[in-house]
């Protein structure tokens, strides 16, 4: 297999397990129309077991990075070997579990990066667009003014208490509301 050749493409229905004798394969997964690298398989291993075991389409694309020597095993032969040899079965399921976890981790990472991208784009927009921030602030100001007007109509105007004038600290007789009729009894 020559560099650049595809062994399996994401979404392919495949019934073959491939043994990599030598060479290196790139593993990619489509995300929003872009092939995102997940990792690589390098010589002395096998690939393609997940679609054979699950009857699901291939979850990733495998493309040769270097010249590869690859041998194909029919899915039914792979399943027969899997059922007849318990040690092989355990190894396959451990490897499959590791690969599925890696794929799930990749997907979670992509979701996190997408959320952070959206957040940073919104923040950059706010920082670069002071007019939008001003409009948003003013739109919140109008309801607050209306509420103050309603409170004024409901409770009446009030003024803050007057501070005594400096000097004696006592009110003058001109501002005192009491009469000078005499002492209270």
From TrEMBL:
It comes from the Bacteria. Residues 164-178 have a biased composition (Polar residues). Transmembrane segments: none annotated. Signal peptide: none annotated. Residues 1-99 form the Cyclic nucleotide-binding domain. InterPro entries: cNMP-bd_dom (IPR000595), cNMP-bd_dom_sf (IPR018490), RmlC-like_jellyroll (IPR014710). Residues 152-185 are annotated as: Disordered. This is Cyclic nucleotide-binding domain-containing protein.
């Amino acid at each position: 297999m020559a560099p650049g050749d595809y062994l399996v493409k994401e979404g392919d229905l495949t019934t073959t397990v491939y043994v990599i004798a030598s060479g290196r394969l790139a593993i990619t997964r489509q995300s929003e129309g872009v092939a995102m690298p997940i990792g690589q398989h390098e010589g002395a291993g096998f690939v393609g077991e997940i679609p054979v075991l699950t009857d699901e389409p291939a979850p990733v694309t495998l493309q040769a990075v270097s010249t590869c020597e690859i041998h194909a095993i029919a899915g039914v032969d792979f399943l027969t070997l899997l059922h007849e040899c318990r040690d092989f079965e355990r190894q396959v399921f451990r490897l499959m579990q590791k690969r599925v976890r890696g794929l799930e981790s990749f997907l979670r990472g992509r979701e996190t990066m997408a959320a952070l991208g959206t957040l940073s784009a919104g923040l950059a927009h706010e920082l670069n667009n002071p007019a939008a921030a001003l409009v948003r602030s003013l739109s919140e100001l109008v309801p607050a003014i209306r509420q103050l007007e309603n409170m004024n109509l409901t409770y009446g105007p009030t003024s803050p208490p007057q501070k005594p004038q400096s000097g004696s600290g006592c009110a003058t007789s001109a501002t005192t509301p009491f009469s000078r009729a005499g002492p209270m009894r």
